[in-house]
Every structure is written in C-alpha cells, then in structure tokens.
Amino acid sequence: MIRLGIPSKGRLMGQTFHWFSERGINLVRSESDREYAGHIEGIKNVQLIFLSASEIPRELSAGRLHFGVTGNDVIQEKLVRFNQLVEPISELGFGFADLIIAIPSFWVDVETLDDLDAVSAQFRDNHGYRLRIATKYHRLLREFLMQTGVADYQIVDSQGATEGAVKNGLAEAIADITSTGNTLRANHLKILSDGLILKSQATLFKSLMAGFSQEENQVANFLVKKLSTKD
Amino acid sequence: MTVLRDILLEAKNLAAIFEATGAEVVELDFLQISNVLLDLYGEDIRGRAFITNDPVYGEMMLRPDFTVPIVEQHMTNSVSPARYTYCGKVFRRQEEFPDRPREFLQVGYEIFDGAKPEKADAEVFSLVNEALSGIPVRIATGDIGILMSAVRSLSTSEPRKKALLRHIWRPDRFRTLLNQFSGLSSKLHTTEEFEDYNKIVDKFEIIGSRNVREIKERLQQIKLETETDPINSEEVKILDDILSLKDKCTEALRYLEKLSKKMPGIELTVENFAKRLTLLEKNGIKADLLDFEGSYGRTSMEYYDGFVFGFYSETHKELAPVATGGRYDALTERMGPGKKIPAVGAVLRPDLTLLLRENYHD
C-alpha cells in the first residue's frame, strides 16, 4: 500500500486536490469528511494520509510516507541533508512563500544585512543583550546568518503570529514566510533588501527512506510518470 | 578497532604528561548554562551543542568544550598563576560531518599566567608536541595577535577598527568591511532624508526596544563614515601581506620584521613572536621547520587572540585535528567584565591519537 501524505489544512488541501485532478488523478476523501483518510479514484493500493504540512517532512524521512505534498521551506528546515532523504518530484505552482528577514519600517538606517550586522553590534553595546530575531525557522536562519557573517543576534522561538513579535516586545526583528508582504506592512515591518533566505512553494516529494515492494514500485512509477514535471 | 578501555588508557598517558608539570587536576560539570555559551559563541553554538532543559536554570547544554567551564572554575578560585589539566567527554551535534562522533574524550591543559605569556605559549606547545611524539603530524601555527595589532594600528577611525576587530574570526565579513573602508566597494547608502528625526516619528510607528535615539546615533555614524577618507592602499596591502603569509616560522618572522618597519604598530606583537620562537628552540623545536600562516585560526577558533596552533594527521587527512590550542587573553574579560586574566591552553583527542598510533605500527 502506497502512503501519500496530503496537507490537511483547508486551502492548501483544496489546491492539492485540484492539481492532482488536472493530471488525471482524482483524490477522494473518505465519506465522513471528519475522518483524515482517503484514496485515489480507480487506483488500488494508494492510501491518502492527511497531516499537518509541518509533519510531512518527518514522516517522509522516517519512511512512513512514500510520497507527500508540503513546502520546501519546512523540508529544508526540518530535515538535515534533506536531499539524501527526499526527492522532489514536482513543484505544484501554489503555496508560494519567501522566507525573509524583516525589521521595523522606522529603522531608516537599515536596508541590508551589512546594516543589520552593524545594528546588532550597536544594540548589544547599548542594551547588554543580543538583538532578538523571532522565527520558527531556527536552522535556516542560523545557517543563513552564519554564511553571511552576521553576529551578535539571538533566535527567539515563535511558532505563530510572528509578524506581531516586534510590536509585542518579544523581538527586534523577525524571520518568517511572506507571499504578498501585506501582513508585514500591517505590522510596521519592512524586508531587508538582501534578506531572502529561501523561496518556497508546495512540492510533491518522494521518500528515499521508504521501502517499496514490487507491487508498490509499479504504482509509484505510474504516479511519478503522471505527476512529474520533467515530461 | 579501538575500544573505550584503550582510549581511556591513552587519555591517562597523555594526561600524565600534563600532570607532571604540577598542574591541578580538575573535574568539570557536564551541564552548562546555555546563556553563558551563547553570549560567548553566538547562536552558531546551537548547531554544534546538544541542548536540554532544567526547570530552574532553563536551557542548558552538554559541554561542547572545556573552555567555558575551565575559565569559570579559574575565576571562582582566582589564584594566578595557575595550571590546570582535565580529561573528560565533550558532546557535539554533527550536522556537517555525520560520520564524526557525537561524544569523545578530550585531554586538556591550560595556563593562567599574565607574567610571561611567550614562555607559557612555548610550554603548552612543547608539551603537546611531546605528547604526540611518534605520530606523523602536520603542524600549523599562526598568531591572531599580530593581525589584531595591524588592524589597531591602521590610520583610520576608531569605529572602523572596532568593526574590523569584531569580525577578525569571520573572514568574509572582514573582507566586505575592509573593501568598504578602503573604497574598493561602494559605501553604505546615504540616509540624508531622515537627518531631521521628527520625520521618522511622524512617518512611522515606533515599535520594539531599539529606539529612535539609536537610529539617530547610527545615522550620524553612517554620515561620519561616508566623510572619512578611505584606508590608504599601502596599509591595506600590509594587512593583505599578513593575511596571505605562509612560510616557515623563521622566514615568516624575518618577513614580519620587515613589515613592522612600515607599520610600527605591529612591532610589539612581532617581537613577542620572536621571543616565542627562541623559547620554542630552547625546548628543542626547530623553528625553521615549523609552518606559519598569517590567517591560521581565523575560522574554527573564535576567541583565540594570540598564538594559535593545530596538529593534523599526515596519514588520515579526513580526521578532525588531533590537537588544537592557543592564547585567549580577552576571553576572561568577555565572560566577566573587569577580570582580565591572560591564558593559553590546548586540547588533545585521545581517540584519534590512539587510532593513529595503532595504524602507524600496523
């Protein structure tokens, strides 16, 4: 039985259903739509597993899912050496999001990472602690700032409503995903001009850790052929 | 296959060399309070250390090295001069090199003594060299102090020197700044529009703990910076000459002495280098065979600010260094303001020394 992970959240789930059906594969949710399970019309041996998009990376890397749809932002944040654990089959063309660093709009002296680094030094001198950046993308942010040589900051965990973290006194800056930038502006924030950490969109991944029986392999090859953007 | 029992025996043998100096044998805590390590190393340490939680102390880390606990230990006892030796496990997350061990033994030796720094440098190096005798190693040495003294003696503004010194251990960022300050790359943007600071308050909502006064302060700094003359190209060239220097110690010294004629600010640190070489020679180490690199110790060894060295396997180049060490005069001050205690130390990896000894005899 092939296990295919689908994001359980409303809009992302709807777009995923639509994307599959455009390629001739109809996903069907179990009759009771309160139940998080389903199948594919006309194809046996595929089980749909509805999960939070943020849990799909873990399940793929453990081999408990054969395929899964999620953003490459969460894949890269959660999986160390992700390209040895999962293989991208197709980019789905929705769920676009940029992982960026944003700072208060009134910081008129700050436009780039160079500025942010200089301000971190100033802030630590003045306040006695390291400038706080709120995010749930700890690893991606840390690696990005290490590569770009920004020092004297600290990461503050924020699992939601991150755009409000500065106004609420939890941090001086944030790193979060944005698509239009509207929420950032509404929260009096602006994006660093060179602070793009990652471009993300919904992507179908195949697990490199899952076992495939001969029968499962046939179904998997059929799906990959139908869904791959390569042809 | 090396087993733990053999590694412990090897560790004991290495430690004996340090104990013979009369060094105090110290036991240090496995669990360290995260904030102390984070303030010293920055967020990067989270990528390297195992993190856990205590209901009272909050976030704690399994010690990723002995530096912090040994300095804390010394600052509470605070009898200088002091010599310490220790043997114990350290713990490292391995994201970049998944095949490397997560826990391994280290044997270390540290001298806290401000009186004769070059003598202490030579002592630590010579003991490590002795401990590794019989193992084919490549030795790298350097001196961050010379580089720092060169930056301090640039004829430019204090904020520029401060910015460069802050990034001594981040070569890319250091280069970006140096290029900006010497006019090789474009300057920081201008922000004249906001020199009247009421414009900021009128136009924007003020949020977070960085305040408008700080913005104004930095706008003035940017203005000053754009008005400051570029660092002259001769001085930049001397910095580059130091950074790219790679030679045997005796030759490197001769070269640096010549440079110090053009940049007198480095005379003192170059003299210290000369003193150290003489003392190393006295200990039987051939300075004309020992490598010196002007940039050595800038990447993996933040907080070292003087003599630095590393011993690497000649036969197993993929291995982590077998021993590393150096001087960290400013560290004690960073950990407890007003308490500057010059120090130098080294750590060895008994698991690797044993592996190399066994392979050598095969």
List the topology elements.
The complex is a heterodimer of chains A (231) and B (362).
Chain A: E1 2-7, H1 10-22, E2 27-29, E3 37-40, E4 43-51, H2 56-61, E5 67-71, H3 72-78, E6 86-91, E7 97-104, H4 113-127, E8 131-135, H5 138-148, E9 153-157, E10 173-178, H6 182-186, E11 189-200, E12 202-207, H7 214-227
Parallel strand pairs in A: 1-4, 1-5, 8-9, 8-10
Antiparallel strand pairs in A: 2-3, 3-4, 5-12, 6-12, 7-10, 7-11
Chain B: H1 4-19, E1 24-25, E2 31-33, H2 34-41, E3 51-54, E4 58-62, H3 67-77, E5 82-91, E6 103-112, H4 117-131, E7 137-143, H5 144-152, H6 158-166, H7 171-181, H8 198-203, H9 212-227, H10 233-243, E8 246-248, H11 249-262, H12 267-282, E9 291-293, E10 307-313, E11 323-327, H13 331-335, E12 343-348, H14 350-361
Parallel strand pairs in B: 1-5
Antiparallel strand pairs in B: 2-4, 3-4, 5-6, 6-12, 7-10, 8-9, 10-11, 11-12
